[in-house]
Amino acid sequence: MTKPDFIIIGAMKSATSTLHTQLAMQPGVFMSTPKEPNYFSDNEQYEKGESWYTSLFSQAEETDICGESSTHYTKLPQYPETVERMAECLETPKLIYVMRDPIDRLVSHYIHQWTQNLMRCDINEAIDKYDELISYSCYSMQIQPYLDQFGYENVLPIFMEAIKSDNQQELTRIADFLGYSGQMRWHDEISSQNVSNERVRSFAGSNWLIKSKTMTSLRKTLVPKSVRNLIKRGLTMQERPVIDKQHLEKLTKIFDQDLAVLGKMLNVEINCANYFEIATSKEQNIQFRRE
What are the boundaries of each domain within the chain? Predict the structure, then answer.
């Protein structure tokens, strides 16, 4: 029964899909399909049983390093049993936590939910209405249970901005963390995965009407392009959502407090103002450390 050696545990909208794809391209690394089994978080997935979960890795070679990537694993308080379930199944997994500027992550999260037709209001109203927009960006709160359960040495912090700045360096850090023999290579020819640009909002029947090859052909034949473009504009987010001053001040205060705690974990001073500088600094040896 093969179990994963490592898991990318989040954060949502922080390039975990791209990282999953890049790792799957490396010789000797086997990544699960689906990318996000959500086994330890979602009750309906957990009820499938451990044999179902381990079957996701049954095609791996004996010497492969196996991994999966489920961002639901760092979605407290929505999935409170995740860490306990993981500890019961896996003794000492290696865990990779990818972070992103917390406000940028929130905006991308909102865009994702908007396209899924799950958040229909303005982003500022959504910030007040949907607690998960903020909580999923509170990285110290999300990661602390893993540090307590599995140890600081078994959790690797990665910044999405560092991946964009120097993807090969970050991939090498991951390889070293996983004890990978050989050199991992970043494949530039593979496009970024799960990009939100120009997403069309979901609606009843959208998969059939938009993604069906037959319907696509009929639309192009029967519906004038000008009409198609008008409909598409109505279903597409035309401009990036703008957070107003009041909500921006609120978010900055919340995230500065959380980043201060995260900074103590990483032995750096980090806040919203200097986040990008810290995230992309090549002089920082970013890792979780006990005080």
Answer: 6-197+238-280, 206-235
- CB burial of residue 110 (10 Å; 0-12, 13-18, 19+): buried
Tokens of residue 288, six digits = 């979780």
Which CATH architecture describes the domain 6-197+238-280? 3-Layer(aba) Sandwich (3.40)
Residue in this structure with the two tokens 């049993």, named with its chain if needed: 81
pLDDT, tens digit, 9 for 90 and up, residues 221-273 = 666 665 545 444 445 666 889 999 999 999 999 999 999 999 999 999 999 99
Query: 54 phi and psi, to 5 degrees?
Result: -70, -25
Sequence-ordered alpha helix ranges (H) in 201-244: 206-211, 213-222, 225-235
DSSP state for residue 95 in the 8-state scheme: E
pTM of the predicted protein model: 0.86
Which residues are 165's β-sheet partners? Answer: none
Q: What is the pLDDT of residues 106-144, one digit of tens each?
A: 999 999 999 999 999 999 999 999 999 999 999 999 999
